[in-house]
Amino acid sequence: MNQVSMTAMQRVLTTLGHREPDRVPFFLLLTLHGAKELGLSIKTYFSTPEHVVEGQMRLLAKYRHDCLYSFFYAPVEIEAFGGEVMFMDDGPPNSGEPVIKTHQDIRSLTVPDVENTPCLARVLAATRGLRDRVRDQVPIIGVVMSPFSLPVMQMGFDRYLDLMFEQPDLFSHLMKINQAFCIQWANAQLAAGATAICYFDPVSSTTITTRKMYLKTGFEVACQTLAQINGPTATHMASGRCLPILQDIAGTGTAAVGVSCLEDIRAVKAACKNKLTVIGNLNGIEMRRWSVEQAENHVKDLIAKAGAGGGFILSDNHGEIPFQVPDEVLMAISDSVHRWGKYPLPTDVSGKE
Predict the structure, then answer these.
(1) What is the pLDDT of residues 163-196, one digit of tens each?
(2) Mean per-residue pLDDT for 309-324?
(3) How far is CA 230 from the centre of its chain?
(4) How high does pLDDT run on average in the chain?
């Protein structure tokens, strides 16, 4: 194969096979920036699937990265359960009042009808629209919240921790409801045209949960859930640490892992070798203040530490780049990957070609 002619899909699939494609693939996981491109408020942007399709296509053309992101916002799942979404002028929508106000509310919770819930239907329509535009040339990344992490938005962190430690029967009941929803929601996105599903699971990270607790809870939930999703998945810790549990994450059946900027990318890459593709780990918060030169240096450093041998997708560490990150920084990241990420990698990507 002529490596120069690789499509984004070929590039990503090659690195997922732990081989080197034509260059390091990179995902700019942009959601809110689509609203900027179209000159719309964030609330208006997400009100129709056509806006999201157009926004994603403009971002793909502008930054020449390697995926489309059909993710709208995290509380879309809370909205599906009957909850409230609070829109911001310059940040991601947040969930409002918890849908589970007391532990006993869990007994009456029901699984949303994925196909007939308007907020989810908009995401599915956008996924179909993106698929129509790119067919098999560019991966489309769908998103689900893990059944284990979703309760933070459903009931609040404090109530969820109390539930987990003090009421194991109710915890198990909530996991069954959330698993049924997660599996249906993931498979509906795959049927609509998503190439893979990003399984956000920050509560399983060692930033929040001990390994011992993870193996009893989030690990078991992930094994059961991912086995019933009809396509490839990537587990993302949404900025949380995961180095001590990488071998366990590999055992859940996922193909890739999104890792924190707080962890040593060399150690992460070594631990994942031939088991998991590493996604990360540029600091999305710091990115807001980077100069063009700093952006290039961070990209070069990351490629030098993690690029060799494939099995690496350069991205941010959280799974969503903040609204405040300037266009010139995003463009500098793109230009730097295109310059310094070509395989075979330069022997010294610190400045000499």
Answers:
(1) 999 999 999 999 999 999 999 999 999 999 999 9
(2) 97
(3) 18
(4) 96
